[in-house]
Amino acid sequence: MNNHDYTNQVTVVITTFFAGEKLDHCLDRLPKKISKIIIDNGNEFKNKTIYEQKYENLNYIIPKGNIGIPSSYQMAWKYVKTKYMFQTQPDVLLNNDCIQELYAATKNYPNAAILSPIIFHDKKYEASGNFFFIKYNARKKKITNKITFNKIYDDLPVGDFSVDAVSATAMLIDTDKLGEINGWDTNIFAYFEDVDLCLRFKLQGYEVVKVKKAKLDHQAFSSHDKKFHRELEFSRNFHYCWSRIYFMTKYEGFIKGKLLSLGLIFKFIAKIIIYIIFLKKKKLSLYVSRLFGTISSLISLRSFYRPNL
Hints:
Number of domains: 2
CATH class of the largest domain: Alpha Beta
Number of strands: 15
Shape: globular
Mean pLDDT: 92
Order of helices and strands: HEHEHEHEEHEEEEEEEEEHHEHHH
C-alpha cells in the first residue's frame, strides 16, 4: 500500500493544552501530505500562524475557552472530510508506519469502528495501558462488572485481537460508524470518554481491534509544559473522579453510582484529615481535588473545573 492510499483517507486530530515542543515532536512524525487538525484548548492564538506555516495540510483551530477532550474531538469531527479520523495527543511519538498499518487493517476488519496501535510507555510495553475489560449486558445496555485494566499479560501480542475498549492515546475511527452513535459524550470533560465511546460502539455490534504491526510510544502525562504540572494535576484528579461517577451512573445505574461516590467521599475525607495532621501539602491537594470532583458528580454538577493558568 503506498502513501497516497492512506494519506487521502485519514485525518489526524490532536488536542493540545500548552503542549510546547511536544506538539512539534508529535507532528514531525506525521506524513506531510496527511490532513491534520489541531484543537488548542490553551487558546494560544500566536501558535495558529506558526503551525499552519510550519506544517503542510494543517488546520489550527482555537475554540472559545478550554472545552475539554471529548468536545474537542467533536468539534474537529465537523472539519474531517475523510473516511477515517486518527485521534491522538501531543505526548505520542508514532512509528513511521503506524497510521499506514492501521489503515491497512481496516480492509481485514470491516466491522471495526476503532483500530488502535500497540502502545509502549517510555519504550516499555505494558498491557494495562493498552486496553480494558468490561463485562456488559448488550440487551440492557448496562455494565455488569467494573472496568478492569489488563494487568495479567504483559508480553507483546502475537497478532491482532479484539478488545472491549482502548485508551484515547490513539484511535483510528471510522467516521461513518461514528455518525451512528453521534460522536462523543460531551458531558465529559476528560477521562472515561474513550471507554464510553468504545462501549457505545460495542453495543451497536461493532468491534474494537488492536493491531500488532501499528506501534507508538506514549510519554504519559507529559503533554503539557512542566510549569503547569501542579494545577493540571489538580484538574486531572478532579475530572477523573467526576467522570468515574458519571460513567458508573450512566451504565450501572443511579444507585450504584451514588453508593460509589459516597464511599469515596468518606475515604477522601479520612485521607485529607491525615494529611492535614502530617502537613503533607501535595497529598492534601491531591485528595481535595478528588473529593471536589466526586462531590460535584454526586450532586449532578457539570464537569465545570478548569485549571487557572
